[in-house]
Amino acid sequence: MAKAKIPMWATGTKPGFGPTGGSADGFTMLELLVAISIAALLLAVTVPATAKMYESMQYRSAVRDAITLFASARYKAINSGRAQDVRINPETGEMRLNDTIKRLPETMRLSVQSARELNRENTGVIRFYPEGGSSGGGVDIETPTGNGVKISVDWLVGSVSQHKYAVE
After folding, report:
1. What's this model's pTM, rounded to 2 decimal places?
2. 58-92 burial, b for 16+ CB within 10 Å, e for fewer?
């Protein structure tokens, strides 16, 4: 029986290396250092980007919660025939409609503009009436960098709008 000779370039092995050669297969120290350096570089780039994306998601969620809470209050006032109050406490970052409570992340700042005669201690109140109108007012939600959004409630028709602002 004759052995077939296969050229070394076809098998990818070098003489003296591999399973039958004199040295074990593996990685050199240099290859390991390069791989670890690449992994560290990727982590250094992705971790801050992930943190920024998380803060952005929290901000968008807070704005969406506020707008939804105001729209919900208007809808409930029209459907039930009774006024609905949205209570906003800037100190705790809490917005409340009946049993529904929305809290802002601690890193964000909340301020409220509302009718003085409806306000309670440390709490601003925006009231929605059964005919669709409201007491008017709004809230500002601001990120730690100073960027934010002003959510306004129209007193005549109770519509909710938002206006972004940014620090330059």
Report:
1. 0.73
2. ebeebbebbbebbebbbebbbeeeeebbbbbbbee
CA distance 13 to 43: 35
What is the C-alpha to C-alpha distance for residues 30 and 13, in angstroms, rounded to an integer? 21
* Residue 151 Cα distances to 32, 55, 75, angstroms: 53, 19, 17
Residues forming a β-bridge with 153: 137, 160
Each residue of 11-69: pLDDT tens digit? Answer: 555 555 555 555 556 889 999 999 999 999 998 888 888 888 888 899 999 999 999 99
**Could you tell me which residues come within 8 angstroms of residue 79 by beta carbon, excluding any fewer than 6 positions away?**
none
